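Pipeline run #58 for the internal structure catalog. This entry was flagged by the ingest filter as a single-chain record with no existing model, so it goes straight to prediction. Upstream metadata was stripped on purpose; only the residue string is passed forward. Reviewer on rotation: M.T. Logging verbosity set to normal.
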Amino acid sequence: MDKTPYGKIVVNNDDENVYDVKLPKVVIAREIIPDSEHRIFSFDAEEPGSDRDFLIIYINKQKKLIEKKNNDYAFNSWENYIKTAFIQLTPEISNTSKEEQLYWYKSLKIKGDSMQIKSIPKADCDYIEEYKNVTKWIQWKKGSCKLIKFNFCY
């Protein structure tokens, strides 16, 4: 937050499809997949309008700044982000069985801390190993802490 450099993610001068990522060895972030096929740098962030010149993101549970100028970025609210992800349940979800924790789900509706989910079949993603048709309401977060895991099928 004091604007001293924390790290860098830059396009490699020798190969524009490769990124040089210079961050600490341990990084807690939503997703960092720098390969040429995916190019995903996804961080928890505050609304982009909260600062005129910088994006405020979270790395290792600390606020960090990224200059808005010369950077392409997109911001998704939690609801929009959830619509792009598959969901896995955790033991913190009270009304779920161990079997249901093996399935992957998509979000149907979100109402505050509650979400209606539906399991997705194996045909929707090669990573899915277990499936049973389940539709149910769960508590997906408690305050500002999420109780679910997000997965993607790349």
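catalog note: The mean pLDDT is 88.
catalog note: The first strand starts at residue 8 and ends at 11.
status: ready for reviewer M.T.
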